[in-house]
Amino acid sequence: MRFELSEEQELFRETTRRFLQSETPLSEIREKWQSAEGFDRRWWARAAEIGWTSLMVPEDSGGGCLSGLPACDAAIIAEEIGRAVGPGPFLPVSLTAFAIGVYGSPAQKAALLPRLLSGDSVATWAFAEAGDVWDAEALTTAIETDGDSVVVNGRKCYVEAVGSADWLLVTAKGDAGLTQVVVPGNASGVEITPGRSIDMVRRFGTVDLVDVRLPTDAVVGDIGGAAEAIDRMLQLAMILQCAQINGAAGELFEQTIEYAKTRYAFGRPIGAYQAIKHRIADLLQRLEFARAISDAAALAFDEQQPDAHELATIAKAYVPDVGLDIVDDCVQINGGIGVTWEHNAHVFSRRVALDRALYGAPEKHKDCLVDGLGLVSS
Amino acid sequence: MESVDDFTRRARAWVIANLPAAGDDSLPERELQALLFDGGFAGIAMPGRYGGAGLTLRHQQAFFDVAAVGHRVPRSFCVSIAMLGATLLDTASEVLKSRHLPRILRGDEQWIQLLSEPSGGSDMAAALTRLDRDGDDWVLNGTKMWSTSATEADWGMCLARTDFTVPKHAGLSMVCVPLKNTKGVTIQPIRQANGVEADFCQEFFDDVHLPSDHIVGDVNEGWKVAKTLLTHERLAATGAAHGYGLADRFDGLGSAPSADPAMLVKAAQRRRSTAGLRHQIADAYIERKVAKFAGERIDTGIRCGALAPGWGSVDKLHLGMNVPRESKVALAVHGCDGVIWDGQALVGGNAGEDWVVSRGVALGGGTNEMQRNLISEGLLGLPREPSLDTRIPFSEVLRSRRGQARDA
Lengths: 378, 408
Description:
The structure holds 2 protein chains of 2 kinds.
Chain A: H1 7-23, H2 26-32, H3 41-49, H4 70-84, H5 90-103, H6 106-118, E1 123-126, E2 142-146, E3 149-156, E4 167-174, E5 177-184, E6 190-195, E7 204-215, E8 219-220, H7 227-262, E9 264-265, E10 268-269, H8 274-302, H9 308-334, H10 345-357, H11 362-372
Parallel strand pairs in A: 1-4
Antiparallel strand pairs in A: 2-3, 3-7, 4-5, 5-8, 6-7, 9-10
Helix pairs in contact in A: 1-4, 4-7, 4-8, 5-6, 5-7, 7-8, 7-9, 7-10, 8-9, 9-10, 9-11
Chain B: H1 4-18, H2 29-38, H3 57-67, H4 78-91, H5 94-106, E1 111-114, E2 130-134, E3 137-148, E4 155-161, E5 172-178, E6 185-191, E7 197-210, E8 215-216, H6 222-237, H7 246-250, H8 261-269, H9 278-303, H10 312-334, H11 351-356, H12 360-363, H13 368-379, H14 394-407
Parallel strand pairs in B: 1-4
Antiparallel strand pairs in B: 2-3, 3-7, 4-5, 5-8, 6-7
Helix pairs in contact in B: 1-3, 4-5, 4-6, 9-10, 10-13
């Protein structure tokens, strides 16, 4: 999180933190583990009331952010959600609201945004495909034009909150190129297989689309013209995930430092031993660097800097493994209790492991970076 | 007091009229510093009676960050002004301050610190260099090491032991030593593992006579002065200090040229196979990119007061870990062509020679281990490890050290 937060942003962060602490403490998260949706719809509407859903939507479309830098503001929420390992479809709703708010037609905005922003409806992005495919170019879901309709066929995987979603933004490929289309969850030919994830409260699922016929005005933007929207949505997804990982890893790290100060072994707090304190120093360095690249990527996104895509890629290639190493070392420092169900370490570790994989693991992004440097894979 | 905005406007006008453009190296650094001094812009936050401008560090920062943009500023005086000058200002007698500060600010005197010794780099308070009374004067004997730019310096601030009968921190004094044409002072550049003579040196002091007014602060209070000096070093490293340029020294400091991402890609393109190397190249590229933003973020945090100056250690620890790491990547990517070549000439600058010296950054300017102590104890409040030698007379520490060596 940037140091130059305005008073308004600080207040917003405080409000978000208190909201999460009081409404969804970790005891509540553990309870939600049993539930199908993982979050409460009335609670989501209250989250929407304090502004969670509207940040990525331009003001003239009914949204609004605090600082004029929507992704930087949204990253504040994402980091706090990470800290609290909070529930809710913040990521998929932010992405779909952004897509409709920026690239949607006036009719789409009027039909979809009011209920999405009020928290009365939930939407998600059906992008990835089986085999961990997160590359737009490699997608196989097909879209064809047929008179006044478009027809979609394919299978979408790893779709967050799909069991709660009223509509999906589906990314498909046609003769004209990449196209995104709004698909109601109850449209004919749509079959949703709900699923779980390692995370305590975030749910996923697979979507099969068989001859799903929709009017052409369900297409967001032009047919074949979705490449830019997809690129920016992927950037945003990576930025929000990195902020969330920093929040989750940072919170467990802080708790672990306190533990190292109070847990005694051989007559001294374990944090007095260099075997522990040096490890902690290394983790602080990496966490600080992870925060720096996440901030830089968010700012570059908002200002649409030429290197925005690259910085988001670097962030997603760097931050998840920092987060993973932090939670992993924290378990070790906490000792045996750290691998029990009762201890909260695993709750944080689950969140980090999920976000590491989602929207491409670091390995994929490193490949992209090396390609970009001009080293074609041999 | 003049507002920062007014000052910046006035300074900008002066800079445009007087300072050479960035990259114009025709004027020697000393003359450039004198130019700044005559214009009233040297030591902007130093009191007027010592030749400064009597303003604040915010004015100083505004000068370099805003007013001087696009122009060349004298960076080689950062150590003299921001570290040694600032320490004199905080701790030295009126005599020393009025004698040296104006000369330092004018660029007439270049100063360095003389702290580390061959017998102990990190454990600075265990200094063996001794300062003994000789009538009204003092006599300095011993050796200091790792002092940057010692061959060019006019003066050094030297930590020496004045009392061996008290615990180690309590028997130290700080003394000013003239380094040029001084009887008993020998300065030798250190040759690095790659065969190249380094910018840092070892100094030998043999019966160097110093008048008593050369002591900085009080006799046996040298550790306090040393701590002040280290604080100013940390501030200078983030650009939040009296001078400028130390922060820049960190940019790419000690980084292996062969590990530059562009060089890595070129080397990889010449290989038949890049199997196993692609992600290593990505990691090297990512670390440098991330470090740039992290450095900026930490500097911003320190300047706006959100972070304590000690956060500079976080940056330094990364550098100390990353240079050896990326040098190993370079060794892998350059492969045989990084360590073998045709002809009899000794070729430097290849991946092999870069790697051989890559641990320098992990050791110089505070080792990685010292940075980890500073971070965990200073920034995170983890308890200190108990020291075995802080409460007993230093002479006994030495005696038991010799005893252990005999027993071994």
